[in-house]
Design brief:
five-stranded mixed beta sheet; binds adenosine-5'-diphosphate; 280 residues
């Protein structure tokens, strides 16, 4: 069993330091996430708005996190933007790649993980990270919707489900309907034809998850597996995909309850590191 990661980032805390408040914002393709940390470790507030780059999502996520923390923007020591839409976010002190932030966030949320699988709304990445959260190497699929959150959203829509309902459907599956197409558009037709045959919906969802797992496992194997393995990104909230990937890779996968916030968490840690080195 993977270790349980329920207390985010506590290992990074340095109680001797003056209090620093840093905010990380992850402007994603589908969702905007914010995390405010005290001293680079202690969670003060977070927000998650299901609207991504080019929408009001980023500013709503910022406002919501500040309100939850009872803080004003001026009280923050650093604001760090990451994610697909990071360059369009105004008012950031630092703009940092999502790879670096996911590595930092994963190391803080799941101390010790060495391989991180991040599946977001429109891409999938596999990272090797050092024990300090430094990115060592990575591979990314951002060319094709298959194996990303987008694939799951398309399939959920055909099944008249929300993505948040997929894991529960999968749990009740007794078999698996094989989805052979690797392309999202062809897989969509395949799922529609399976529906026409009245196959069991639970087994169909299990087949959809297996298809994501097979694709992701290919990416993981190309980079190589260094254990322990952890998963970040919104798709990590889908326990069906996590289970299917564990089976495909033959290894346990750790997931933090804050998996979707990992990039924002890492961005807040990055801002803290920067501020701390400026002060030293
Ligand atoms: P991005 O940063 O590109 O916006 P995220 O890492 O936020 O992507 O992940 C978005 C994806 O997470 C969605 O496409 C969806 O598939 C998945 N997702 C979001 N919320 C849930 C949930 N409650 N249960 C399962 N999957 C979810």
């Amino acid at each position: 069993m993977p270790p349980e990661y329920t207390r985010p980032g506590t290992t990074l805390r340095e109680s001797t330091m003056a209090e620093l408040l840093t905010l990380g914002i992850d402007v994603g393709s589908t969702t905007s996430k914010c995390v405010i940390l005290r001293d680079g470790a202690e969670l003060v507030a977070s927000s998650l708005i299901p609207a991504g780059t080019g929408t009001s999502g980023p500013s709503r996520a910022l406002t919501s996190a500040l309100e939850e923390a009872g803080l004003k923007r001026e009280q923050l020591h650093a604001v760090t933007a990451t994610g697909y839409g990071r360059n369009g976010f105004e008012g950031a002190d630092h703009i940092v790649s999502e790879l670096s932030c996911h590595a930092l966030g994963a190391a803080a949320l799941m101390p010790g993980v060495r391989t991180v699988v991040d599946i977001g709304g429109q891409d999938a990445k596999v990272l090797h990270v050092s024990s300090e959260g430094k990115l060592e190497s990575f591979l990314m699929n951002d060319k094709c919707a298959a194996g990303t959150g987008r694939f799951l959203e398309v399939m959920a829509r055909i099944l008249e489900l929300d993505v948040s309902e997929l894991a529960e459907m999968d749990e009740k599956a007794t078999g698996r309907v094989n989805i052979s197409s690797t392309c999202t558009v062809f897989a969509e037709s395949e799922v529609i034809s399976q529906l026409a045959k009245n196959v069991d919906l639970h087994d169909l969802v299990a087949g959809i998850h297996a298809s994501v797992a097979v694709r992701t496992a290919g990416l993981v194997r190309r980079l190589g597996i260094t254990r322990p393995v952890g998963m970040t990104g919104g798709v990590a909230r889908n326990a069906g995909v996590v289970r299917a990937l564990e089976k495909e890779l033959g290894t346990d996968i750790a997931v933090s309850p804050m998996a979707q916030l990992a990039g924002a968490f890492g961005a807040a840690v990055y801002g803290w590191n920067k501020k701390r080195s400026e002060l030293n």
